[in-house]
Amino acid sequence: MWLNRIKVEIMKSIGTFITAIAIAAIAGCTIMDGNAIVTGTTRPAISPEKVRLYRVAPDEFEEIAIVSVSAGHDFKKNSSLMNEAIQRLKEEAAKVGANGVILTIIDERDAPSVTTGFGSGTATGTGGNVFLTGTATSVNRGDAYTRLNGLAIHVVE
Predict the structure, then answer these.
(1) PROSITE patterns from the xrefs (predicted)?
(2) In 10 A of CB 30, how many CB atoms?
(3) Is residue 111 within 8 Å of residue 139, measured between CB atoms?
(4) N or C: more exposed end of the chain, with fewer CB within 10 A?
(5) Side-chain-side CA neighbours of residue 118 (13 Å)
(6) Using 50, 70 and 90 to split pLDDT, how confident is the model at 1?
(7) Which residues are CB-neighbours of 91 under 8 A, at least 6 positions away?
């Protein structure tokens, strides 16, 4: 009877551990990074909402800085990571007073994978043996990230 109790306690402990790891991984926040390398004359900081993105350079502008950001998370959709990266890019540009960013590099990666594992263990003691086996399958989106680079500019209006 005590062997069955040991089995139950071991299985509860394993289940609790796996649940805790899964919750921590899913609830984790997006890893963000960003910077600006000043290449021109900075201006007073502005609101990020006033920063406009460009794929093609406008007719007249002044170069202020090179800005780059990255956003990564294992459980978010690419669209969510892109939105967070764009917001951070605008924030970096706004800090140096740029009212526009010409996007130069858009780099995304989402590498899903599925893994299966098998394990076993033996516990011995006076009065009997306990043998445990188990299998596990996990789905991992892998190293999902979005990286953006651009030229922070002041558009002459």
Answers:
(1) PROKAR_LIPOPROTEIN
(2) 17
(3) no
(4) N
(5) 0
(6) low
(7) 34, 48
- What's the pLDDT at 146? 81
Outline where the chain has alpha helix (H).
Answer: 2-27, 78-95
- Yes or no: say if 90 and 51 are a contact pair by the CB < 8 Å rule: yes
Sign of the torsion angle spanned by Cα atoms 89, 91, 92, 97: positive
Could you tell me which of 54, 56, 148 has the C-alpha nearest to residue 109?
148
The two structure tokens encoding residue 15: 């289940």
Helix (H, G, I), strand (E, B) or coil at 6: helix
* Phi (first) and psi of residue 112, to 5 degrees: -75, 155
**Tokens 């071991």 identify what position?**
10
How many residues can be counted in the chain? 157
pTM reported for the whole predicted model: 0.62
Which residues, including other chains, have CB under 8 Å from residue 78's CB and lie 6 or more apart? 108, 110, 144, 146
| pLDDT top residue among 103 and 133 | 103
Query: What confidence score (pLDDT) does residue 107 get?
Result: 82
Average pLDDT over residues 110-134: 64
